[in-house]
Amino acid sequence: MGAIAFVGLGNMGGPMAANFVAKGQTVKGFDLSAAACQAAEAAGAVIAASPEAAVEGVDIVVTMLPSGQHVLDVWGRLLPMAGPGTLFIDSSTIDVQSARQAHSLAERHGMVALDAPVSGGVSGARGATLTFMVGGTESAFALGRPILEQVGKRIVHCGDAGAGQATKICNNMITGVSMIAVSEAFVLAERLGIAPKALFDVASTSSGQCWALSNYCPVPGLVPSSPASNGYKPGFAASLMLKDLRLAKEAALAANATTPLGFAAVDVYSLFAENGHGGDDSSAIVRYLRDEAHAGATD
Ligand code: NAD
């Protein structure tokens, strides 16, 4: 396997690049942040002076950036500089339309492209246990799979261009909606005088069972490994949940899909973030709902 250019060495990209290095790959990294570059260099990556310099002589390019516009800008700079047939993998979470645009751009330059967003968060990035949801042709997937296996534990081919991003936002719409639903149930139970443990013991073994309840319970003390039991430190920050829910809403509008609960989840997380809680874990939404319940109480 040839050298890897890695652009976007932040919370996720930094540890992913470090894991490629740990697997024996030559990684040429670039980030606008000097601190991110220093951390990647300390982990064994070679830091390039520019994104263009990072792609010189590599066979694989991985990007891990904040938004679709960042990805299109960076790919727009890198594609003309890369050798023919270079594999471009974008692992950022971005809108489906930009992902498809990035694929077309790559194709036009004679490159191979995959959209490969991840779930598993920073701990998954550090532990090389990420799940990759991948969009692109069968042949591109066959090329990309062994690369992604070095930094992830589950690699799923979801379909053609953009299918990875589409799958990711559908999954996260389930997570966002179910986190609110579980939180609402605990708030209602509290108001009805039911102990949280009683609801947990019943719902986690009944039809209310779901990941947000059983693995990521928003009420402290019921699931020891949940962020709630650790002061609501992320975890998965509310601002990132809101980003993904907004992408799902945008995709639903574009595809004319009816997702009223997905839309409502955007509103709930927007209010939470606007009130200064974007940096809290997404499960802290239960606190916002509890306060609202008290604010609205008339007894
Ligand atoms: P981050 O902000 O920590 O990292 C993004 C990095 O991109 C920053 O270091 C920034 O300096 C760099 N950057 C921005 N524009 C650039 C450019 N033009 N050239 C080079 N570098 C540039 O964000 P993150 O938490 O690492 O997330 C990255 C992506 O992964 C996002 O799309 C996010 O939604 C997704 N994601 C994050 C998590 C998570 O838990 N943090 C989980 C799953 C997916």
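^ nicotinamide-adenine-dinucleotide complex. The mean pLDDT is 95. Residues 163-191 form the longest helix (29 residues).
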